[in-house]
């Protein structure tokens, strides 16, 4: 290990692997290490199924009770990709798409009044949905059309709405939308996690609505994609990219420590005392806890089912968002469902994951409203994880730390963190303008 690197990356979570690939492609000499024997770190996909039981310290199931164990790939932190979102653009930009196959998610649903409804995503669905009354449907249709046509560079599309000063609450009021419609628009379409956005300029709301619409237009069933064989394929894809550009990978390296001189990183030492020198370190919070602060907790329940979710037209994959207001909470509850159709479960089996940001001393109970939507549950694995953020921007120490993965069931917040880290590390924003127009291969 007596070499000098431009960057040493610790941890093989998605954020770290994406940044490792980006640094390697830009010509940096990269060493990438992980204490685990597998890729993915806390966002790994566990296979065979017995490994999932072991991870949660549970007794292994009876032999082939759930089909062949090797047919399972259980995501510890499941999330979907927006079809036109930032992560897909990064996949296309870096060429990592060549290592992955995707399947579109069958449906996007929202919870209201104890029931779930398909999220209306275009004018036709807006008029057909039972989520709203007749007059509200027309008001929502007009608002959806306005959002899709809105262009910050074309004042003709403004309709007396200033994206920089008109708040989200004001733009809802302008179109006469009621509280329920505001709820599913902000949380199930724009994917806000709470209602803080209501007092902010509406430009970001309109941008997010447009992203949802554009993502939906790519494949039609929903705006979401999911990789075959689980999310563990994503960090491995970026790891391959890094390796192609001469990145070096070392798994199963416990006991690594970051070394400093006068407050600035000088390298990483392994458990045998060998020092690899470097100019910068990129890592997840677990590798530098002293430079992080707790910012909350997220609770997740991974459930094994033998049936699709009731009231979703037997969909093999869905996302369901339960807006906080519907269940007297501050933060939303998320449900993501995948199945054997995605090569993550044995034939006929489903994986449903319910997650939220903890608000009480009894986080597991906070998932009850989501768990009740699933129908009979064969197995349930519950975890409560501390959420961490770095206490500084890393520019002084040159140690750049990612944030913990939040409760959302999509990767938009993950990508925001990646791109913010990239700008801090390089001093320049990532340039999406060089992206080639390409279509992900997606099975219908």
TrEMBL record:
Keyword annotations of the record: Cytoplasm, GTPase activation
The keyword Membrane belongs to this UniProt entry's keyword annotation: no
Gene Ontology molecular function: any one: Rab GDP-dissociation inhibitor activity
GO BP of this protein: protein transport; small GTPase-mediated signal transduction; vesicle-mediated transport
GO cellular component, one term: cytoplasm
SUPFAM superfamilies assigned: FAD/NAD(P)-binding domain
Subcellular location: Cytoplasm
Key word Iron present: no
Pfam family, any one: GDI
Family recorded in the similarity comment: Belongs to the Rab GDI family.
Function recorded in the entry: Regulates the GDP/GTP exchange reaction of most RAB proteins by inhibiting the dissociation of GDP from them, and the subsequent binding of GTP.
Name of the protein described by the UniProt record: Rab GDP dissociation inhibitor
């Amino acid at each position: 290990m007596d070499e000098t690197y431009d960057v040493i990356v610790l941890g093989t979570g998605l954020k770290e692997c994406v940044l490792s690939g980006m640094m390697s492609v830009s010509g940096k000499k990269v060493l990438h290490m992980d204490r685990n024997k597998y890729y993915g770190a806390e966002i790994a996909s566990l296979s065979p199924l017995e490994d999932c039981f072991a991870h949660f310290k549970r007794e292994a199931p009876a032999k082939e009770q759930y089909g062949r164990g090797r047919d399972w790939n259980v995501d510890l932190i499941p999330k979907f990709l927006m079809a036109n979102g930032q992560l897909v653009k990064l996949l296309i930009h870096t060429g990592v798409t060549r290592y992955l196959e995707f399947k579109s998610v069958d449906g996007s649903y929202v919870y209201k009044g104890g029931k779930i409804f398909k999220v209306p995503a275009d004018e036709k669905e807006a008029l057909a949905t039972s989520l709203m009354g007749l007059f509200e449907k027309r008001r929502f249709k007009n608002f959806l059309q306005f959002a899709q046509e809105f262009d910050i560079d074309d004042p003709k599309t403004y309709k007396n709405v200033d994206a920089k000063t008109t708040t989200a609450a004001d733009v809802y009021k302008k179109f006469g939308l009621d509280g329920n419609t505001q709820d599913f628009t902000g949380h199930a379409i724009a994917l806000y996690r709470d209602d803080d956005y209501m007092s902010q300029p509406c430009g970001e709301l309109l941008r997010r609505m447009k992203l949802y619409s554009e993502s939906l237009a790519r494949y039609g069933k929903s705006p979401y994609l999911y990789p075959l064989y689980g999310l563990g394929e994503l960090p491995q894809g970026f790891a391959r990219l890094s390796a192609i550009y001469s990145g070096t990978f070392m798994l199963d390296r416990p006991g690594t420590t970051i070394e400093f001189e006068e407050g600035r990183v000088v390298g990483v030492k392994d458990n045998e005392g060998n020092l690899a020198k470097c100019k910068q370190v990129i890592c997840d919070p677990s590798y530098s806890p002293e430079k992080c602060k707790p910012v909350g907790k997220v609770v997740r329940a991974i459930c094994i089912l033998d049936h699709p979710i009731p009231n979703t037209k037997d969909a093999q994959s869905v996302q369901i968002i339960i807006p906080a207001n519907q269940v007297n909470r501050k933060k939303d509850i998320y449900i993501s469902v995948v199945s054997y159709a995605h090569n993550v479960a044995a034939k006929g089996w489903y994986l449903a994951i319910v997650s939220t940001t903890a608000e009480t001393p009894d986080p597991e109970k906070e998932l009850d409203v989501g768990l009740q939507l699933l129908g009979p549950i064969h197995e349930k694995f519950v975890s409560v994880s501390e959420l961490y953020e770095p206490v500084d921007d890393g520019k002084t120490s040159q140690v750049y730390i990612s944030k913990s993965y939040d409760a959302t069931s999509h990767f938009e917040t993950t990508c925001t963190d990646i791109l913010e880290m990239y700008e801090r590390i390089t001093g320049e924003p990532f340039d999406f303008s060089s992206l080639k127009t390409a279509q992900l291969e997606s099975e219908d």
